Amino acid sequence: MASEEINVSDWVAEILAEQRVERVFLYPGGTIAPLVNACIKKGIVIENFKNEQGAGYAALAYARLTGRPQVIMVTSGPGVTNILTPLADAYYDSTPVIVITGQVGTTDLNGRLGVRQRGFQEVPTVAITSPISKLSVCLMSPDDVFHYVPQAFKTAMQGRRGPVVLDFPMDIQRGDIVLTHNQELTYSPSFQVDDSVKFSLQDSLLKEVAEAACAAKFPVILLGQGALTAGCFESYLKIADSIDGALVTSFLGVGAIDTDNDRSLGYIGHTGHLAANKAVHKSDFLLVLGSRLDVRQTGNQVNDFTPQGKVAWVDIDINELENPRVAVDWLIPAALEKFCDRFIEKLPEGSPEIKNQNLLEFLNLYSHRYEDIPDPESLVIQPRDLMDALDVLLKNINTTVVTGVGCHQHWVARHLSFRPNDVKHLSSGGHGAMGYDLPSAVGAAMAEPDRIILCVVGDGSVLMNIQELATIKQRNLNIKIVVVNNSRLGMVSQFQLITWGADPTTGDVDTIDFKAIGEGFGIPSVRLSQVDSMEATLNKFWFASGPSLVEVSVDPKADVVPMLLAGQRMDDMWMGRAK
User: Fold this and answer.
1) What is the predicted pLDDT for the residue at 184?
2) Domain that holds residue 137
3) Residue 194 burial (CB < 10 Å; 0-12/13-18/19+)?
4) DSSP strand E in 29-119: where?
């Protein structure tokens, strides 16, 4: 049988090219250099960032927007530990990425003999990353490389998506792999939902759930990130019309329906809309599509989540279904595409006209906008007023909105208008990591170069990866950065004030000149502090060519209100501190 030797790194680059990997996101280092050089020879674009977190978050945004697994490369030791935060984010928010880490040689790995570290910049990558990845493996031989590199793409996309870690010893990268004739095969790209994950949708079960939905006096449909990823936007509306029900989303599901849709009540949970939370609590039938029902969605009073309602939960992750936090009547393991098609067949023909009196009452409540009501006596810019002014700019322009983590994150989700495929929403959900913002905006701009990327970030979160302003400037990316400066670490400050009456570690944060920082990186920057100049300043910022930054001084006393606190039911949110 004919055989051929090929350098391992060159072979990996071939596989990446066959998987249609067009670019690799990285921060370079010695133990990853052979693979990087092989990718360059193959014509794969090398996207070099200023920190491993920057590379990781850019890849996450790119993967979420394209639906294709992206490749991140980092060196051993500190390269591995610096990529852990984006890796955790990918794991908890179901983002398909392949993280390839450099590692010391196999001689050092095999000869540890109880000592703490044998090689320079060595860490136990597999032990560290296994709990936050779908697969983590150290490739100790060419056979491991041949097996796991192609498998990584399938694993990342199979079932509930997520990250895979391949730890690559230096000597393996530089060695040869022997290919026999029958091993020289082409691996088909694994971008689609993997067909090997099959579920049995019983006709009797679908009929039972459909009958319950149609008999309900106030049915509600909850769309999570799984629904957003599945993209069955017309199907969700058909189901809602058929049962004359309300539509709500989770925080990560924002964008799965048009927020201006007649049936939309906003998103639910810890910082959700008042009407959405109350509606879920009052519903007598809740259909959950691709949402985890975690504590940030349900609160901790799980017995009172939907006290009068039946719950049908559809999800691709069987482990989630088998471990529910709230009472669920129908657990349905299924890909949403398949479920929606089959479920709609069981429903009567619907109408967009809303006749449900319960829904009409909640739509009226939603229209009153009890969230973040501006202080009429303040002379300082109010957060909701800022969001409303930004929303005007988004109305007729396809935009991807990226946020950091903090008060600004929830003001954005509450008050900007999102539409499937037109105005998209990217943020860190399960991991809730500050610093997600700037590098994710870079990844979004790379994935969608013809769109405007609006990056709204707080004065705390922006400092976590502020070095990526250099990446934005170097690539002249069309990213509009709004730094919402409230001179406090708002979410934790708010928690401290509610709980202990003081915020010694998070209030009155020293003022930083973000305008000067932006200009220092070569990005046109302005400062906005006066209400009467808001429209003109934002228009100048928005329509500037290339990247631009505006630092907005907002009321430091403004909280995220209302909020679902520990011990509260979904219909009993905290309505703010006493003035």
Assistant:
1) 46
2) 3-183
3) middle
4) 45-48, 70-74, 97-103
